[in-house]
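the two lines:
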Amino acid sequence: MRIRRHPQKKKGKEDTNRVPISTKSQDLLTERLDANVKFFTDLYKDSSDIVFRPFTIGNLKAVVIYLDGLSDIEKLDELVLETLMNKQDISQTDIIQSLIDSIPISNIKKISTYTECIDAVANGNPILLLDGAKEAYALGIVKYEKRSIEEPAAETGIRGPREGFTESISVNTSLIRRIIKDPQLKMKTFHVGKYTKTKVIVSYMEGLVDQTLIKEIENRLNRINIDGVLESGYIEQFIEDNPFSPFPQVLYTERPDVASANLLEGRALIIIDGTPYTLIAPVSFFSLFQSQEDYYERFWIGTFIRFFRFIFLGIALFLPSIYVAITTFHQEMLPMALLLSVASAREGIPFPAIIEVLIMELTFEALREAGIRLPKQIGSAVSIVGALVIGQAAVQAGIVSAPMVIVVSITGISSFLVPRYSIGLSIRLLRFPIIFFAGFLGIIGVILALIILVIHLSSLRSFGVPYLSPVSTLQKNGLKDTIFRSPLWKLDFRPHLTGEFNAVRQSDNLKPSPDKEEG
Amino acid sequence: MRKMILVMLLLSIVLLSGCWDRYELQDLAIITAAAIDVVEDEQIRISVQIFIPRAITSGETGEDPSTGSTFVREGVGKSLAQAVADLQTNIPRKLFWGQCRIFIFGKELAEMGIQKEIDFLVRHPSPRGISNLYVSQEEAKRMLELIPPLERYSGEALRKLSQQEIGIDTTLKDVDVKLAGDSQSIALPIIKVLVSPEESRQGNQSIPVIDGTAVFQRDKMVGALNMEETSWLLWLIRTLKNGTISVMPKGNEEEVVMMPISGNVKFNPHISKNTWNMTFSLEVEANVIQNETLLNLHNENTVKQFEKEIEKVLKENLTQTMEKLQQEFHTDILDFGKRFHRKYPDEWKKVKNNWVEKYPEVNVTIHVNAKINKTGDIGPPAAIPRDWVEEQ
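prediction for all of em together
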């Protein structure tokens, strides 16, 4: 008996019969109202939230179909039903057009296929079917419950706007439109997901972005053929350049200001309905270490904090491994006084250093994960227990040494300094293999791991843009905004992405200075 | 399948070759200082001072200063290597030499020659080139047994004393280079046990202190300079920062004490008609730190006179010290050989093999140029009525 089977693979492309709507849906609507209604009642059989409202206009039969909770019923009653039902004079020749014209709603679309009708209903547009009409009318009175605009939870800051994206895509696009008023801001709509039909908008600044990038994004989006898109991560994982890399090749943000800044730098946004996270592509390694406040605060601060982040990136990645390497292979590298202190602390510890590090790091990771997943009410319990596990109690119990607690704590804090959560996750993950390298080969192992990392990073690309740009494939102008954050009046050029054109961002000589004539 | 093989191969890199020199700190005996003596039958005895790591509990180091944080263990063998091997059999942990920066030779061994021991230390990958070497007046092992009241172990006390620049400072690398070089002479600091009230109170509580310089011709100790001679010698080696120099002005019975702040020696080897000459030019700047006389130091002439006095004092003493090195010990620790070799490579070739005989014949001339920089906050002597002050 075969245990492993691949039923999906066997079927291959024939799988398309899982598409939910019958082939009939491509058909045009008929002129007979009862036939059209019958189609929909069959289709929405066993769906309790579909509403059919038959009524008559004079002697003309009509039906309104909508899904409960997705449309504004008050408006439907007042503006549509009331207006139409009160019509008595229906003897005109072009009766249907005049009826529609009399409905005081700005957004009415004429649709003629079943598919379009289904889409309209699913998106909250009630459809109006009239007897004798070949077309249905989708009434644009969508209204559903949504979260209000709140401060972004995962990307907080001191200075800067406090608005964050919400789950509603129309709110999100409006937030960007409110920042960038130029009509060059384009939004192209796609639908991804066989069942969810999630609206995905590719947004970019025409003239600033390389059109080949937009084409590439469109191609990659069109390739996606999955059941549903529940979060931006679904899209991200299908459009990455190197899906096996531990590093994120697409950035996400829930801040309209960050999204707009990236648009203005010639990047594209992929806005996805149903999630407050918007994807940004292409990105480089260095943009993962930038936060919006680097630009909002003065450049000394921005530069200082960026330096800081890179130092702590090194600590977060390598400190536990270097500790293991030095205490087990290269004791002579420690200054005498430190060696004696560490030796005293490690006396009587039952585990080798690498096991000790792994115990502590895994405990720390477990605590962190528990802190995220647990209901908020129990959260404080975790931190109390956590303080005991990674702390004095563990040292007193003689299970781990005090220097190890310090090492793990510093490493933990360092990994929180990374402003983008996604790269923080990569660092957490990579720390473990590096610890193993260090445990087996000492400093040579650490250096080996570093070399492998750098080679991997150099080979990575995000939508064709080298991941280490502007450092690898060096661009002088780009360097002003990597580890340093030059003054804004010095950043005269946009980052060089795929295209060559339209590089100048601002006029030069913007440095504030007293008027020469006055001086 | 191919992937599995690849994974296995990669794993074998780690599992088969890795960790071969991995030692946990708990498995190491950290040596803080080592002493090498010669015992009966010309056997070599190595004694090492080993740090006792004690678990730190609730913030206390757990080290009791009266018992010390180290112990001494020894190994004996025909050679140093055998002695070390013998030592390892007496210690359950692996000896860790990487941080041992103190090597003390017993005087008896130093007089017999230390070349074989130096070879072991230089050949062994662990001991550092910057380790300090010492000669002990008594049994070297005794120095390790001392328990210093301030430092954690006596080796540390010794190392800090060396940093004070009160004695000569010679490292393992220096010895290796110099004995292989032209001058073939080295100088090591001599240490002795400090006799102090602490020791009388408690058996071993004392520290080793520097007590002069042992001068070596080739690898054999041929004599010693006392502390005073050492300090004169140091004038020719590097700036003496912590020493003092005192002069007695003419017609005075009291002294003016000065502290050198910078100094510069220039060696000028010169050969003319088969006489080999070495000229030192010594530039000294000094500050007055104490004035016992009644002279007013704001007087320019007085200061000028002092400068002359310093020059005289230095010249006299340096000449004496040089004479001792040349005539008594025949050791070229100031690297005359190297300096002649550089300037006169052809002449050097002729005397190279009997440099020991040639060296005492070198004429030494010493020029001193002293300058008094500061005389302190006050000119005339303090706490003395104005009219007692001699303006000269």
